[in-house]
Amino acid sequence: MNPILSFIVVLIGVYGLATSKNIIKSIICINITQTAVVLIFLNLGSFNFGDIPIITDEVIPMVDPLPQALMITTIIIGTTITALALMLSIKTFHYYGTLDWKEMMGRE
Amino acid sequence: MKNSSILVCISRILFPFILLFGFYIIINGHVSPGGGFQGGAILATAILITYFIDPERILNLKFLINLEKSSFIIILLIVSLSFLTRGVFFTNFVPIDGEIDIKKIFLIALNFFIGMKVALGLVSVFSTFIKEGGYRI
Amino acid sequence: MTRKIFLIAMLTSIFILFSASIFKSEKYLNDFSKSYYLSNGFYETGSKNIVTGIYLDYRLFDSIFEASILLIVVSGIIFISTRDDKIL
Question: What ipTM score was computed for the predicted complex, to two decimals?
Answer without folding.
Answer: 0.84
